[in-house]
Design a protein that fits this description.
With 49 residues, the chain is mainly alpha-helical. It is built from 2 helices and no strands. The longest helix is centred in the N-terminal third of the chain and has 13 residues, at 2-14. The chain is elongated and about 45 Å long. The chain starts with a helix and ends with a helix.
Length: 49
């Protein structure tokens, strides 16, 4: 995840932005069974990847 954020920052800086701020929120839950692959699939579906 951090490698992807770094690449995004590098790309935006290369486009001329002198300053970038990124906030990352990570949550977990114990009330249902969910694998990391489920979370990755959810993010990809939401981001169009």
């Amino acid at each position: 995840m951090f490698a992807a954020i770094r690449k995004c920052h590098e790309t935006v800086h290369a486009m001329g932005a002198p300053r970038i701020s990124t906030v990352v929120k990570v949550g977990t839950r114990t009330d249902r069974d969910q694998k990391m692959s489920d979370k990755v699939a959810s993010v990809k579906a939401k981001s169009g990847s």
